[in-house]
Each structure stands twice: as C-alpha cells, then as structure tokens.
Amino acid sequence: MIGCKRSRLLHNSRWYSISHLSVQDRIEEKRRAALVGGGQKRIDAQHKRGKLTARERIDLLMDPESFVEYDMFVEHRCADFGMEADHNKYPGDSVVTGQGRINGRLAYVFSQDFTVFGGSLSGAHAQKICKIMDQAMMVGAPVIGLNDSGGARIQEGVESLAGYADIFLRNVMASGVVPQISLIMGPCAGGAVYSPALTDFTFMVKDTSYLFITGPDVVKSVTNEDVTQEELGGARTHTAVSGVAHRAFENDVDALLNLRNFFNFLPLSNKDPAPVTECHDPSDRLVPGLDTLVPFESTKAYDMLDIIHGIVDERDFFEIMPNYAKNIVVGFARMNGRTVGIVGNQPKVASGCLDINSSVKGARFVRFCDAFNIPIITFVDVPGFLPGTAQEYGGIIRHGAKLLFAFAEATVPKITVITRKAYGGAYDVMSSKHLRGDVNYAWPSAEVAVMGAKGAVQIIFRGKENQAEAEAEYVETFANPFPAAVRGFVDDIIQPSTTRKRICRDLEVLASKKQTNPWKKHANIPL
Amino acid sequence: ARLYIVWYRIVSGLSLNISKVCHLSISGVGIVSHVHVKMADEAVCVGPAPTSKSYLNMDAIMDAIRQTGAQAVHPGYGFLSENKEFARRLAAEGVTFIGPDTHAIQAMGDKIESKLIAKAARVNTIPGFDGVVKWRRADECRCVCLLGYPVMIKASAGGGGKGMRIAWSDDETREGFRFSSQEAASSFGDDRLLIEKYIDNPRHIEIQVLADKHGNALWLNERECSIQRRNQKVVEEAPSTFLDPATRRAMGEQAVSLAKAVQYSSAGTVEFLVDSKKNFYFLEMNTRLQVEHPITECITGLDLVQQMIRIAKGYKLQHKQEDIPINGWAIESRVYAEDPYKSFGLPSIGRLSQYEEPVRLSGVRVDSGIQEGSDISIYYDPMISKLVAYGASRADALKKMEAALDNYVIRGVTHNIPLLREIIVHPRFVAGDISTNFLPEVYPDGFKGHPLSAGDRRELLAAAAALHIAAQLRSQRFLGEQRSRRHWELCLELEKSVHMLAVSHSRGTYTVEVDGEKVEVSGEWNLASALLPLSINGSHKVLQCLTRSPAGDISLQYLGTTFKVRVLSVLAASLSKHMPEKLPEDTSSILRSPMPGTVVGVAVKPGDTVAVGQEICVIEAMKMQNSMTAAKTAKVKSVHCKTGETVGEGDLLVELE
C-alpha cells in the first residue's frame, strides 16, 4: 500500500530526532501517534465516506472506559519498497486490538484501521489479532472483529498471506469454543473474506461494506460480467442472495449499537451456560392471540413471527438472516430471561417448505446453539421438502441432511411445538421426538402425517370413485394430533395460549439436562 | 323455557353487551362469519368474510335460525338491522324480530318517505327536494335552483354517513352522485339518492326514543354526536352542553310524536340537526339500536337491550316520561383501526398483536367484539371498540376518558386514539363549542398529533431518557453480575430538535436535567409491560412504549400521540454526524395505496397523460370509496393494479414518469 506523510500529525515534535527524547516522552509520543492512526486527513476521508475510525468504533461498542488496548507499540517489519522509512511506520500498525466489556461482560475485539495503509494486513497486524484470539480462547470470551481492510499488505508478500492463515487457523480452533462475530464495516476482499466466513456470525453495514473474492474489475476481465461493488458483494447481496452475511445495519452507529444488543444473547464460551438476564415478562403469561392464529383452512398462511413474538420475552426477537431463505425463521430470544434459539418454518413464504437454502440456514443456526449451550425451541409447520429438478440437481438430499444431522446431534434442551403441518420426512427433521427432542408438543391444529390428504388419497384409494369421501376419511384419521399423541411422539397436546408458560417451565427443568454423544474425533456432517 | 336469541356479531361489542343482558335466562346464539371469534353460548358460521356472503346473506342466516331453533333475533346495528325484507322473512317463520315492525322500518328506512311522514307529524324538516333523484342534468338544475349550494346528496336507503356527500358546485355534484350511488349500491343494494339543503355549521343531536306495542312512547333525552369525520361519528356525549330544558323537551316531544305516527315499537333514534339559534330539523330516524346507545344507558340508568327484548315480548313500558332522569355525564369515543393523520382517519388493517382494554378504571366501559390476536380486515367497519366514560359531571367524565385513552393498549394496527385524546382536551370541545365541522375547523391542515408545549417536551424527553437508562441498566444485570453507573449524559432527538440531558439515578427515580430544568421521573420500570405508569415531577402520567430499538430509537405514546425519540449517548450522537444521510424515495411520481382495500376502478393506462388532481384509480376500503389522484402532471409510466385486486397499505398502484 501507499505510504503517507505524517509530519503534520506530530505537531511540535521532530520525529527524525526522536532518539533525543526521554523514554517517557517517547512513550507518550508513540501513544499519541497511535491514537490518530493514519492522520487527521485520512480520518476526515474516512468520516466523509460515512465511516467511523477504528477507535471510534471500539468506543461505541465497548462500555465507556472499559477498553484495554494491547500492542499499541507494534510496528510492521517490512523492509522492502521503502516501507522501512520512519514515516511509513505507525505505532500499532493498521489494527487496534484489546479487550473490554459490553454491558459488563468480557469481549475481545480487533478493529482494522483503514486510515493506516488502507487497513491492509501485515504480518504484525495478523500477529496482533492472533494474540487476542489466543487469549480469548484461554479465558473463554467472545472475539469480535470489526473488518475494514483493503486486503493483503502487498509490500510484505508471503508474510501477509501467512498472517491470514494464522488467523484462519485460530478462527477454526476457536470455532465452537468462544463465539466469534464479524462486523464488516468497509471493504473485505480476497483471501481476507475467509476469516469472517469462518466466524459464527457475519454482519454488514449497508452501503459502506463489501465482501468478495475478487472485485468488479477482475470479474469483468475473467467472466466479462459488468457488476458494481454493491451488486457483487454489498450488504443486500449477501443478506438476501448469497446468505454469506447474517444481517445488515443502516450505518456504523446503528450496527455497533445493535451488536451490543446482540452480544447480550450470547454465552461467553462453550463452558458458559446461556446467559440469564433480569426478566420483567411473567413466565406464566398466557398468549390468548395464539388460540386464533392458525387459520381453519390448512391452505391458508399465517405469520410464524406472530407466534414467536407472542411467546418470547417482551416480543424481543433478534432474527438471524431475516432476508435469506425466508421459509425458515431462525434467531435468538429469551424465555424467562434465558437466551434460547428459535427455529420456525414460515408458512407465509413458500408454504414453509424446506429447500436447500432453508436447510443450510437452519442447520448452521442449530449447530451454533448446540455448541454454546443455547436451548433450541422449534415451531413446526412444514408441508415437506420442496420437490423439483432445481432442488434435486442442487443436492437437496445432501443439504437437507445437514438440518437433520444438526438437530439429531444437538444435546442442548430441545423443545418442539407442532403448530400445524408436520408432513413426511420434514416432520422427522424438525427436531422430532425421534431425534431426541426433549419435550414435543402439538397444538390442536397439528397434523402429523406422511403427506397431505389430497396426495395420500390418490395413493391409498387409487381408483376409488368417491375421492371426496376418501379424502374426508383420511382427514378424519390423520389430519389431527392424535396419531402422533397416542404413540407418544408428542408429549402433550396443548392449548396454544399456554405455550409460553409450558416452555418456560420445561426450560427450568431441562436446565440440568446432561446428554453426550459417543466419543469421536469429530462427526462427519454431510457438507 | 329457553329462549334462543340470535344476533349478529357486528364490528363492535353489541353481541357482548347482549350476552350480559341475556346471561340469566336466555341462551345466546351468535352468528359469525369465518373470521370472527366465537363469543356467544353457541355460534353458527354463516359464511366467509365478505359481508355479502355472510352477514348480508339472508338465506344462510335463515338457515342458522332454523338450525338453532332460535325464537327471536336481535339484529344489532348495520347489516340487516333495518332491512324490511329480513323482518318480513322472520315474521313468516314465526320468529320474533327484536325491533320495530316491518311497517316502521319501511317508513323510516326510506329517507324520502320518512321526511313526508315527519312533516305530517309536525316535525321540523330541512328544506329539500322530496323525491328520488336520478342523475340527469335536468334534476341537477332543478335541485340547485330550488336550494342553492351547498347541497347534501345522500343515499335514500342509507345511514351512518355511507353514500353521503356534500357538494358546493356543479362538478362536485356530478362526482358526488357517481360515488354516492356506487357506495349506496354496494352497501345497501339500493342506489336511489336524494338531495337537500345543506345546513352549514350544524350540530348533530339525536333523541333516543322507546316505544312499546301498546302505543306508549318515551324520549330518553339526547345524545350530542357533532364530532364527526366524513359524516361518521367519532365522539358522542349525553347530555348535550347546548340544549336547554325547553329545547330538549320540544325535540323529545317531536321525536315521540314521530314514533307514534308510525306506530313505532322498540328502541329508536330520531336524529336532528340543530343550528346555532337552536332551531332543529329532523334528519332521519334509525329504527335500530345505535352504536352510541351506551351513553344514554349511563345517564338514564335504563338497559336498552333489555327494554327491546321486553317490548318485543309484548310487555308495556315500565317507565313514565317523568321517571327518565339525566344523571351525570357520559362520553363515548369510537376507537377505530384507522390512521387519524390521513384525512382524520383512513382505514388500516392488521392483527392485534397486543390488546388491553382499560376496563380496570372506574367509570369506564368498553364494548368491543375483538380480542388479542384478532384480525382487523378490510371486510368490516374498522371499529375496534366503543369506549365509554361516565362521571358525575362532564369534567369528571372527560378526566376518566383521558385516563382510559392513555391506558388503552392497541398494537398491530394503526388506531385513532391520538385524535380522540386531542379532541377531548381541546379548549373548544371542553367549552362545548362544537359543530359537525369541528374537525376541519380545528385542524384545517389535517390532524398532526399533539402539539408539544415546552413543559410537555421536557416531560417526554425526561421519560424517554429515564426509560432508556432503565433498559440499559437492566441489560447489565446478568445473573451473577452487577455493575452499575449512576450518572449519564445523553443526547435526545425529538421532532428534529436535539437536546442534551444529564440523568442521575437512585432507587428507581431518575433525575433528568432537560434544558436547564430538573425533572424527576419515577416508576416501576417494568420493561415488559405495555403501559408505563410514571410519576413525572409528582404528577401521575401513563405513557406507552411502543418500540425500543437497540440503536436508541424509542416510540412513546404520550398524551395520546406517538412520538419518536432517539436516545443516544453523547459519544454515539457526536459520531452520528458522520453517518451518511439516506435519501428518501421521491414519491411525487409514485402513487401508493394509502390504505388496504380493493381496487374498484382504474382510470388510466400506461402512456396516458394525467393532470394534477386527476383521478387515477378508486380504492374501496371498509365500504368507502376513495379516489386516488395524480400529484403532478405527467405521463403514466406503468400501472400496477387491476380492478378487483386487493391491495395493501403502501402497495404501488401507478408510476408516473
């Protein structure tokens, strides 16, 4: 990256004669230099782009005066292309790292500084990140990355690439040990994208952040496609089309304040139970609106979010991937103050069927919850897997298996509520009793069957003249919760309005649940 | 013996009200459409949501009556309550119709005939053209020559403001005719119209009458229903501040003589227009129970539904005219699912995600037919409930109404509580200086919500700041961890102005310094509750927090109106100035549906040029037709709606170039 003049930063001091200063003065000098990063001009440019500086971001994210910075004196070690010159050295280099508190709870954070060499990743930069990741894993606290980097420090060559790999390895090692969150607040391109991709959650800032393997210029030269940065890797693309990012926020301030809120849902590590906050919402609150929510006609849609909002504490639901694979809803909420993961089929979108994207979305979320001791509550209204060549050629068998795998291997408390349809293999998949569901409920409107009445009648009563009568018989027999209930596949048939009360009580009981899977090096989830 | 009574569940509470009356000896059978909740002892579904297939489907209703063995029918209000054919078919089946007999319904249901009868009964009437007007140029000329503008066009078969329009010019007359006849056809199945002199600045005061089958009739005092929008009542009260005993008696006696002239039995209402000199003119007679009947019940102590059932059974009236008192004061607010910021109320729809009625307050009665989870659909009137406050004096009743509105929790649909809350505290309303033009006169540029005084502003900001801190403090209280601060500096944005606040906290009380003044806010700070009862500088205020986002956006309902406040730490506020402004969409070239409804006509196609104000399409919602017009002169780029299509609020209808 390009060097920059920095004499203007150090108002009265003469940088070239630094050795004449006392150690104390030099410390102060360096600290002051570190705090202004790439200098006022670059800070102004950053602000002009509608972005905050690395330090401003940390200030907003962390509780006031809680941030403790590490490695403020680290400098890059590159000696080529004139990089060794004093004016090309910045105390702290192009990233700010350290730990602090979010609502009193410990978090490690790195914040890439775009004002220093465009936030490019040097060996030193990578080393700083690795240091806090190692410590975070050791003490058991989440790592938050605020990404704003032009990419590799080209002047450093393979050292920069090695740095990426060091981070990737730690991302992988930390996976399932401490929660890792990436907030993309500027460019993130090339190999750099794989660090956010390895973390648990990737959030983006609308209009000012991009994630792509190669930018529009390279795309044009290779595939001759004309595409803008925003279309190729903007927040809309990744939250609605690719599913790479989990959510997007309006701007830096909005994103950081939301991240603080999101952090409250997470346990600090895999040894920590799901956090419990003070709760003002009575755990035995009835939700009368739910008794009339599911329409009489089984072909009519309703909004699964109405159920979720009604049941969780204070209607507070942090949805993950709200704009991607909308036929499944996943996200975090609290029940009686305790964090839970919610998974629900969304009848409003594609009848709530399971397809490739919704299976993968659901599976990843379930695995996160399981890894971090977050109980999973599943609301089932699923007509089955989506048929068709597009799905089969795309590998719905392989991808659908991921969701099945994730629910089956999860050992956290699992509570399932069948609100209406639970048809076919999708019934099995959606945290059924057979996959070690701890408590499975059916609402009176539940229908657990191999398929809907129309299809079933055509098979069972093939050739029978009175199809309508056959259909009525099938509906009478199967389109209700009894076949599942008499076999004990659901533990109870409950009045919808009592669902919150029941779940809160079950969670209380299941808090001490202990279940382990057989010893293995790791399972072989069908990737 | 069990007497089955059938009624319709109309939009609001009458069915519940009737249940209360009937619960001792009578089993109720409710007739419901698919969308409605079962509230009676027994409910029969008469069809899907559109009214023409359910509540207006006479065959289905007759079937339901046979099936349940109902012996009597209470028709509620609206729908078939004033339908003479329905009354006739009931009579043929030997089922008692709880209401007047067919003859009276017929006589009073037709506005032209009723006027002639009223004249004959020596009731004051409005000068007008007596007879059905079919739209022809000759008629128009004749009307105008006879009366002079303004004129009132109304559906002969109508009521409740439907199919009613005021015209001030030939053009408006023409347009009014078209809409009124369409509306009349769709609401009443009868498109005949009549026209009369429009009395400017009148009050709408009506007299409740009660008559038995033995020729006895009483007047149960008046109801003042002047606060209206688009000729539909919004706030009603009994008695009226305007009537002196002599006028009251004169109106009552005329009403009774009209009832007697048509051998009326059951409860009925004679509506009058009263001008500023206390001259009154007969408007129409409603041969059914009115929506606003509870306020009469409050001040007279009579239960009108019970009286109606007694009368239908053939009993004589229990009371004499001198037994009818005026005890205290009652006020009714009609709570509608509509957006008061758009022409005092355009319908909105949605699912009531949270709903709590202020029934715990003393002197407050809520009649509604909905509950949490109910859908407010485009198929019915958008009324959520009738909220009645009753007190020893008008001031007392108004105070109770204020509290009731503040404690009413409605989430999921836009509602008109902001408007109701403003009306009842407006100095003109408080002084009783009202007319049917109250709303357009008081809010000539449309309703804009509660205007905040400097003191209000301080209170609101202090409450928002305290709430924000209470929520922050709570989010730091994880199990087993306690850390807390006692002092904060916040930056609040309200209605585009920015305030710096200093907040300190001790034991549930927040001391907030706003614009140099200290405001003390204390409360229980239950963040899960929809209501936020606070003590602000010692005075009790109930606010409601509608939303609270992690980014500091809080919407608070304060004095009825919802205000958006952004609460940020001083740091976040100072950094916010670097955030890019997001450009709002240019809306002049885009026509969106202002409310959910059905498209009943599209007047343009792509390529047409439209002028400012030209009609582009017509949306029918809640049985009202609304003309959508062009905001600028331009070519039509694309049309996104079709006749017969259902559209949601904000749906794109037409794009202009």
Automatic annotation (TrEMBL), chain A:
Example of a GO MF term: propionyl-CoA carboxylase activity
GO cellular component, one term: mitochondrion
CoA carboxyltransferase N-terminal domain sequence ranges: 20-278
Biological pathway: Metabolic intermediate metabolism; propanoyl-CoA degradation; succinyl-CoA from propanoyl-CoA: step 1/3
Record note on quaternary structure: The holoenzyme is a dodecamer composed of 6 PCCA/alpha subunits and 6 PCCB/beta subunits.
Enzyme Commission number, as recorded: 6.4.1.3
Pfam (any one): Carboxyl_trans
Catalytic activity reported: propanoyl-CoA + hydrogencarbonate + ATP = (S)-methylmalonyl-CoA + ADP + phosphate + H(+); butanoyl-CoA + hydrogencarbonate + ATP = (2S)-ethylmalonyl-CoA + ADP + phosphate + H(+)
Protein name per UniProt: Propionyl-CoA carboxylase beta chain, mitochondrial
Gene: PCCB
Family the UniProt entry places it in: Belongs to the AccD/PCCB family.
The CoA carboxyltransferase C-terminal domain, residue ranges: 282-521
InterPro entries: AccD/PCCB (IPR051047), AcCoA_carboxyl_beta (IPR034733), ClpP/crotonase-like_dom_sf (IPR029045), COA_CT_C (IPR011763), COA_CT_N (IPR011762)
Gene Ontology biological process terms, A to Z: fatty acid catabolic process
Name of the top EC class for this enzyme: ligase
TrEMBL record, chain B:
GO molecular function: ATP binding; metal ion binding; propionyl-CoA carboxylase activity
One of the protein's GO biological processes: lipid catabolic process
Highest taxon listed in the record's lineage: Eukaryota
Keyword Metal-binding: yes
Taxonomic lineage: Eukaryota, Metazoa, Chordata, Craniata, Vertebrata
Domain Biotin carboxylation intervals: 1-444
Compartment(s) of residence: Mitochondrion matrix
Extent of the signal sequence: none
Parts of the chain that traverse the membrane: none
Enzyme class: ligase
Main location: mitochondrion
Protein name: Propionyl-CoA carboxylase alpha chain, mitochondrial
Pathway the protein takes part in: Metabolic intermediate metabolism; propanoyl-CoA degradation; succinyl-CoA from propanoyl-CoA: step 1/3
Reported cofactor(s): biotin
Annotated catalysed reactions: propanoyl-CoA + hydrogencarbonate + ATP = (S)-methylmalonyl-CoA + ADP + phosphate + H(+); butanoyl-CoA + hydrogencarbonate + ATP = (2S)-ethylmalonyl-CoA + ADP + phosphate + H(+)
